[in-house]
Amino acid sequence: MRWILPSLYTVGWLALGVSSIAIPQVDILKGIKVEKRQLTSVPENSYPVRSSFVGTNGNWAKFFFSTDNGKLYMGTWTNTAPSLAYGYEELLPAGSVKTNTPIASTMWDLNVNVGSGLNWVHADKRARVYYLDSNDVIQELVYGGGPVGWSAGTIGALNIVASATNGMSAIAFKSNNAENVSLYYAESSGAVKEATWTASGTPQWALVTVASSASAAYSLSPITFVNTKTWSAGTPSIRGFYGRANTIRDVAWDSAWSTGNVAQSFVDSTGSTNGGYSFAAATWKVDSGAPIVTLFWCGDGAAAGTLGTLYRAPYDITAKTLGASLAITFTQAPHSFVVAASGTNATPPHGNHLFAWGNSTGTPAFWHYRLSGDAAQLSLH
To answer: In angstroms, rounded to a whole number, what is the distance separating the alpha carbons of residues 228 and 291?
Structure first.
């Protein structure tokens, strides 16, 4: 079965370079645009996009997905006129990734005060990607800019077995003048765990329980964490979301872990069977000192909203509460059950990206939307 990935593009330019059908569609509401173009060629038979990040003021995005034969791909979207092209790079060969399981990613820049300004091939660009092997053991790819490229990481040596039906999420931050990466995953018991790597001294991993199995991730539920401070802030301010019994819950870390106040319903039985991704959180503007966290989730036909419709709501990082929710109406897209969201660390426009997957027509499809703004409800057509 061939999957389809539509995306967004600026009206007036032609889609070039990738086998595609250009569909110019722009809606303007309160001066905010949504851009989209449809791609008809995605490598092999692919599962939904599970993770993404946005760099250099929203001028490019990287997104990650696996195939039914166990390959790992990195997709690239570039905001370069006239093509606004997509490209795909096979990071791992067949048999490397357990099919239809979680993927997490994060990136940062060395030797700068902010976290996403350098281009992808700059020598100081860094990134991590996490995935599960055939035994559900977490494995890692490490990216170094310039001629270094991708290499195997060290987390696999810990033999951490994660739940293949829950999500995974990763963040990066600078602490004690050293690089740090924290990975969040669920054990088979449902406990949410944090594995943190630090480059200080001898690089090593440390494991912490974020939420115990008595109160933590329900089977088949997503896990999504964000850092609400700029990369070099010294200490992170972390907000995390996980699912339990069809309800989104939240946790927070400033100097210690605490429980938040979110209790939002979401669809669990449909989207989460695809690797635990039926809600996602995105944060942007952290480098401008005004972080905005938005939570996206899929309706369930009941308390969570209309089945197949995506919803968004602002998250108050101080009160740890959700604001009023608004439906994102995919009037020409399939019902969406799997989402991955990401935003540039800088100030929009053009910095907020949403990847969705759904099936309402009998043919599964990918959808990629670039939201040119972050303060108003967008009507998608």
So the answer is: 6
φ, ψ dihedrals at 40, nearest 5°: -105, 5
Spell out the domain ranges in the chain. 5-372
CB-CB contact of 367 with 330 (8 Å): yes
Contact 241, 249 (CB under 8 A): yes
Tens of pLDDT along the chain (381 residues)? 233 333 333 222 222 223 332 323 333 333 334 444 444 456 677 777 788 888 766 778 888 988 889 999 998 887 765 556 677 889 999 999 998 888 999 998 887 766 567 889 999 999 999 999 999 999 999 999 988 999 999 999 999 999 888 889 999 988 888 899 999 998 888 888 999 999 887 778 999 888 776 555 555 577 889 988 877 777 888 999 888 777 888 999 998 898 889 888 776 554 445 555 678 888 777 766 678 888 888 776 677 777 667 788 889 999 999 998 887 755 444 455 667 777 766 665 556 777 776 655 666 666 777 765 432 222 222
The whole-model pTM stands at 0.83
CATH superfamily of the domain spanning 5-372: Fucose-specific lectin (2.120.10.70)
CB 284 within 8 A of CB 343: yes
Amino acid at 253: W
Q: Which residues contact 320 (CB under 8 A, 6 or more apart)?
A: 239, 250, 252, 258, 260, 261, 262
